[in-house]
């Protein structure tokens, strides 16, 4: 079992729809969870971070964390063609004094105009 | 505030050579980590430095090494390059000791021929 799992996609949604991206992780002790967006040929860009159970909203983005189910998701409302990218879920599996992140393989999102 | 700066951005090396990549973290950030990204393996953690000490190391051969200087700048070195070392090498920095958000530089694209 991989430590952080994502559906590779592609996930295709029409412009203006809600895109839902999902991620599961293996270690119940994980403390910190992140979503990064990566355009082709570019480096990952931080979208959201979440540390406690529940929802966290930032503009059109909402991150959801459920530690009991070891599940973290990212919702993108009013999806735009410019949101088309690979979305990487990252987890700090170890807590404590480390910034080591384990990444999923990413979900490719395609927003159709 | 300047972001994470990596040099060189692009380089081509011959198999068997060695390469050194440089990273300047965001001002005030003391944690620097390195990742390798390839199409086949995704984003994989190489190592992390905090206050000039290597705190974590990923599952890479000893040909991959790094160091951090007193000004938090970091370098990574790959010796005896192999074709499979062709990848995007990403440096990331963080302001706190652990569990905190990391911010990526633009990366160094290494091609081994």
Brief synopsis:
The complex is a heterodimer of chains A (113) and B (113). Chain A is 0% helix and 53% strand.
Descriptive account of the structure:
- The complex is a heterodimer of chains A (113) and B (113).
- With 113 residues, chain A is mostly beta strands.
- Chain A contains no helices and 11 strands.
- Chain A has strands at 4-6, 11-14, 19-25, 32-38, 45-50, 54-58, 61-66, 71-76, 85-92, 102-103, 107-112.
- The model of chain A has no long low-confidence stretch (mean pLDDT 92).
- Chain B is mostly beta strands and 113 residues long.
- Chain B has no helices and 11 strands.
- In chain B, strands 2, 4, 5, 6, 9, 10 and 11 form a 7-stranded mixed β-sheet that branches. Chain B has a 4-stranded antiparallel β-sheet with strand order 1-3-8-7, with no helix packed on it.
- Chain B is globular, with a radius of gyration of 13 Å.
- The model of chain B has no long low-confidence stretch (mean pLDDT 93).
- Chain A binds chain B through residues 31-32, 34, 36, 42-46, 49, 51, 88, 90, 92, 95-106, and chain B through 31, 33, 35, 42-45, 48, 50, 55-56, 58, 88, 90, 92, 94, 96-107.
Rg measurement of chain B, Å: 13 Å
Briefly note the structural class of the backbone of chain A. mainly beta
Distance between the termini of chain B: 37 Å
Sum up the overall morphology of chain B in one term: globular
Low-confidence stretches of chain A: none
Report the largest inter-chain contact.
A-B, 26 and 28 residues
For this structure, the quaternary state is heterodimer
Question: How helical, in percent, are the residues of chain B?
Answer: under 10%
Largest sheet data of chain B: 7 strands, mixed
Low-confidence stretches of chain B: none
Give the SSE string of chain B: EEEEEEEEEEE
- The end-to-end span of chain A amounts to 36 Å
């Amino acid at each position: 079992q991989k430590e952080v799992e994502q559906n590779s996609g592609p996930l295709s949604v029409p412009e203006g729809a809600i895109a839902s991206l999902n991620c599961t992780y293996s270690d119940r002790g994980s403390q910190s969870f992140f979503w990064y967006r990566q355009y082709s040929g570019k480096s990952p860009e931080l979208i959201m971070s979440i540390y406690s159970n529940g929802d966290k909203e930032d503009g059109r983005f909402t991150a959801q964390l459920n530690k009991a189910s070891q599940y973290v998701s990212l919702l993108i409302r009013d999806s735009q063609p410019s949101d088309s990218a690979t979305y990487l879920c990252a987890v700090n599996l170890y807590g404590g004094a480390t910034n080591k992140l384990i990444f999923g393989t990413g979900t490719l999102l395609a927003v159709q105009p | 505030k300047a972001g994470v700066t990596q040099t060189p951005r692009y380089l081509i090396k011959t198999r068997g050579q060695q390469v050194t990549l440089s990273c300047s973290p965001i001002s005030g950030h003391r944690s620097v980590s390195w990742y390798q990204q390839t199409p086949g393996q995704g984003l994989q953690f190489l190592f992390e430095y905090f206050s000039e000490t290597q705190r974590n190391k990923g599952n890479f051969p000893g040909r991959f090494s790094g160091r951090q200087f007193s000004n938090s700048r970091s370098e990574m070195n790959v010796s005896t390059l192999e074709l499979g070392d062709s990848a995007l090498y990403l440096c990331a920095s963080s302001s706190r000791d652990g569990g905190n958000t990391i911010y990526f530089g633009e990366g160094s694209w290494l091609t081994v021929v």
